[in-house]
Amino acid sequence: MEADRAQLHLVGTGTHVTPVVPPSSPRSHPASVRLLSLDAHGRVLDWINWQDATCLYARGAVAWTLGEPCLRVRGGTCRRTGEQSLIELHPIVASRGHARAQALSPTPTLTNTALFARDAQLCLYCGHEFSRPHLTRDHVLPLSKGGRDVWENVVTACFHCNSRKSNRTPQQANMPLLAVPYRPSWIEHLILSNRNILADQMAFLKAQLPKRSKLSA
Ligand SMILES: [Zn+2]
User: Fold this and answer.
1) Of 1, 75, 76, 201, which has the most beta carbons under 10 Å away?
2) How many A from CA of 118 to the centre of ligand 1?
3) pTM of structure
């Protein structure tokens, strides 16, 4: 189809979009919806934005999809027919080919955002919930004592507990940890890193969680 230079824009979410966050939240805007990208074997790759998903559809690179369309993207107008192109995006999109081995289940990057999400914004010393500006990354075995900046050695801590623990281990400070720090699996990371997961996507991801996962409840 010969199309004018495509002016892609979102025309809204379908009735099947069920954002986890309230509709009033700016994150529930259609442009904030992320689509779950799989390889052709159904293995989970990553979240992709609607622009990247649209490219997959336009290139004919979509192998199969799951769920009812959640976004519609209008493209350019065909000069011959006068019809405007329309691509409907599905919440879960498998693209042709299979992923390189290293692209599957990579270690989630350790960031404060990801760490605080893992620990549900709770200080793992006093157990209280705090808003993000009041949270810190605490090294269980302090860096000065050879501790490493890795998932298994970091916990969310409030400012007060972090400064009280200071340069000591939990044992030395007599501040026992409320939970053992762990490295999230890639699936756990995908759930924790997106606050706007659609119902189809959440069901698909939760079906792949190990039973031990705190997120499988
Ligand atoms: Zn605390």
Assistant:
1) 201
2) 16
3) 0.75
